[in-house]
Design a protein that fits this description.
CATH architecture of the largest domain in chain A: 2-Layer Sandwich
CATH topology of the largest domain in chain A: Beta-Lactamase
Oligomer: homodimer
Largest interface: A-B, 32 and 32 residues
Number of domains of chain A: 3
Number of strands of chain A: 10
CATH class of the largest domain in chain A: Alpha Beta
Radius of gyration of chain A: 26 Å
Order of helices and strands of chain A: HHHEEHHHEEEEHHHEHHHEEEH
Largest sheet of chain A: 5 strands, antiparallel
Shape of chain A: elongated
Helix content of chain A: 40-55%
Chain lengths: ~350, ~350
DNA sequence: GTTAGCACTCAATCGGTTAGAGTGCTAACA
DNA sequence: TGTTAGCACTCTAACCGATTGAGTGCTAAC
């Protein structure tokens, strides 16, 4: 069956109406809309066709129609395509307080990411999720050993992308302040600029021979370094706006709310699931839309997820996701994400040098 | 009216039965219990009295009885009192994996606190909340400036209690590696051991004069120090097990679930509310029980909250809270918290020297 | 190709009935 | 005087059938 222009218009009308009302939409409602001046009966015929094509369904015989995943997919693809044509729709988004937020000196990346999730959730009324930056290719930028207490030292490890981790190490042996400084120099000289893979046995042996007596310290520091790299691999996930799901009855019936909230709390699962989403041929600018069954998390099969990939330079990148009902305002979410991404790029890619 | 022994027994029987069933408990149920060998009629008479005393209520005329806040209060006070008498009940708690958890080298306090919240939530099936450590009297333990990029330095600030914060500072001027080391020495000499209040204008003036040309760097570092102290004042709050509230229907009716989850997400509000709870004359060992209306957070008026104060030495302390329905298993929660506290004490008070 | 009309379906709603749980009261009993 | 059996009473939850209203599909006319 052919999907002619009128059918499309009707489909979009149904989707947009359902977006706002959350109730199945009937033929009368559509016929009274501006732009569609047909009688309910005509609309009904078209709707029957749309249903046959699998784009809409009726929850029950005497109800209006609701879009299917397939229907949404069509809608979203068309929407994104139109944007790509440069038709800068300017749906008068409320200016995100991003600029203000990000331009403030927020030194810790993590803090900034959390804030970002909060702003996104507040602006969209959906749930926002940000995975911490990670990169297979990150390198050791810098290492700092400092004496703390008797028998304990503080090892600060900095990776490319300004990922900083503190490690407090307890030593069995004692080490003087001067020795520590020497060691610090040796380690930095030997390790700076290397990736996890590049720190191999020969590098380690070399370091230990240079370090002389303090091989134990070297081992522990190397452990800390390895841990920092590892940690970065399972970097934290920030969520915000989880309670927003209660705004959408279709997400809160039965145990759904409970399951969703649980999933959001179990950030680990969430992170790896979302993190693993490939960036395969996103229609543009790395923005991906997953609708219903397409979402690779079981408890979110009634949701849609829109993700974007941000980059902090140096190949360090992470994902932002917006989780909402399938009838979410895709246009707004995509626009908001794009705006956020360009702000981020502006700030981080400039900072980097 | 007198609360004789039998009335008490009946009250406790009602509470414990309601704890498990969550349904109003009737006279027949009680009369069939071991130990209480009276006819339903007799129980009814006693229940009428208990109701008159405000210890129990009926949700509606033909329903069983449910404990009131006052009833729970009586129960909890008696329970705690009995414990104080040394009757070590040993309700065979599942051995908490705390020991294992805490003995592992978890360097960052924050990580450990989050883990603790997770273990508590999993063990009790309620929601756990841990406020980060804070202390008005914390002191600067140690300061480390390191060169990072051109124009940027990393300032690591360590407060007593091993609270570590990283600050990346962007400088307008340039500073050599050697100058930075000198500055590092000067700052540590001048600031180590001081509290926020003790770093006053005269100290600052002294430092700046010693620093010579680099007063800008000194200012920025001091800002970073002040921020670290400030941050510690509003230290993060970790929650875990929020979805557990869905196990208790009385907490999820209407918008209650939504409100609760929102409160838990707004950790700031939560932290200050819980943090402000005074430790005024806790019946023992700093454990406090807040029942229903006693809870100082509006959205938790249907909950009970049990808090304990932990100490990391050096006057650094924070609070742990367990949030559950009013019919929570107070015994178990109090025991679990006590066990946790003693583990914590064992570990931290030993480490400290 | 479009539309008016009409019979049909189904979910939601409402009023009424029933079943069951639990009570309070009274009177008998030890 | 305290305890208990018996009974009438109350109230909720569940069930049922009728009604309403929204929305449909189909047919026939335009």
């Amino acid at each position: 069956m052919e999907l002619d222009a009128r059918k499309k218009e009707i489909l979009y009308a149904i989707i947009e109406n359902y977006q706002e009302s959350g109730e199945p939409v009937g033929s009368r409602t559509i016929s009274k809309l501006e732009g569609l001046s047909f009688s309910p009966a005509t609309i009904r015929n078209e709707m029957a066709d749309l249903e046959e094509m699998g784009l809409i369904v009726q929850p029950h015989t005497s109800a209006g129609r609701v879009p299917t995943d397939k229907g949404y997919r069509l809608y979203v693809d068309k929407m994104l395509a139109e944007r790509e044509n440069g038709r800068e729709v300017s749906r008068e988004l409320p200016a995100l307080p991003m600029q203000e937020l990000l331009s403030k000196r927020i030194d810790r990346v993590e803090e900034m990411l959390l804030k970002m999730a909060q702003v996104l959730a507040a602006n969209t009324n959906y749930t926002a999720m940000v995975t911490g930056p990670r990169s297979r290719g990150s390198k050791l930028k810098f290492l700092q050993l400092s004496p703390l207490d008797k028998g304990r030292i503080l090892a600060v490890v900095v990776l490319s992308g300004d990922i900083v981790k503190n490690n407090i190490l307890s030593l069995d042996e004692d080490i003087s302040s001067q020795e520590l400084m020497d060691l610090n120099f040796i380690l930095n000289k030997g390790l700076t600029g290397l990736s996890l893979e590049e720190i191999n046995l020969s590098v380690i042996a070399e370091l230990k021979s240079e370090a002389g007596a303090h091989t134990e310290v070297v081992s522990k520091v190397l452990d800390a370094v390895a841990e920092t790299f590892a940690k970065e691999d399972s970097y934290p996930v920030y969520t915000s706006g989880a309670p927003n799901i209660f705004r959408y009855p279709e997400l809160t019936g039965g145990d759904k709310a409970s399951e969703l909230i649980s999933t959001l709390e179990e950030k680990k699962t969430l992170g790896s699931a979302i993190g693993s989403l490939s960036t395969e041929g996103g229609s543009q600018q790395d923005i991906q839309v997953y609708i219903g069954e397409e979402v690779p998390v079981d408890s979110m099969k009634d949701c849609s997820v829109v993700t974007a990939t941000y980059s902090l330079g140096d190949g360090v990148q992470g994902k932002i996701g917006i989780i909402g009902p399938k009838r979410m305002n895709y246009q707004k979410v995509v626009d908001t994400l794009k705006e956020t991404m360009s702000h981020l790029d502006g700030i981080f890619l400039n900072t980097e040098d």
